[in-house]
Amino acid sequence: MTQPQAEEKICVLPTQNQKGWQVSICTGSVNRKDLRLFGTREEALEFALAERDRLRTEQNREITVHLPDDCPCYFGD
C-alpha cells in the first residue's frame, strides 16, 4: 500500500513568460522543487503523470497531479 503525501503535489504550471510549461513538486507557494520545462502543456502533463507513477513504484509515495487552477504553488498573474 502506498503512503499518501497529502501536502505534496506535482504541478503543471505555465512559465512566467507564458511560453512553456514547468513541472514542479510543491507543498505550497514557498516550497517548490522545479523538475523540468516543456514546450507544450501536453508534454508537461505526460511527464508529470510518468513522474507520479515512478514515485509510486520506486518510493511508495502517492502524489497527485494538479494544473494551475488547483495547484498550491501557482501564483497566477
Label the overall shape: globular
CA radius of gyration is: 12 Å
Order of helices and strands: EEEHE
The first-to-last residue Cα distance is 39 Å
Biggest sheet details: 4 strands, mixed
Question: Uncertain regions: pLDDT < 50 for 5+ in a row?
Answer: 2-6
Average of the residue pLDDT scores: 84
Strand neighbour order, sheet with most strands: 3-2-1-4
Count of beta strands: 4
Question: What topology emerges from the helices and strands here?
Answer:
Blueprint lengths: L2 E12 L6 E8 L2 E8 L2 H19 L1 E6 L11
Structure in words:
- The structure is a single chain.
- The protein is an alpha+beta fold and 77 residues long.
- Helix content is 25%, strand content 44%.
- It has one helix and four strands.
- It has one helix at 41-59, and strands at 3-14, 21-28, 31-38, 61-66.
- The protein has a four-stranded mixed sheet with strand order 3-2-1-4, covered by helices on one side.
- A hairpin with a 2-residue loop joins strand 2 and strand 3.
- It is globular and about 35 Å long.
- Mean pLDDT is 84; it is low at 2-6.
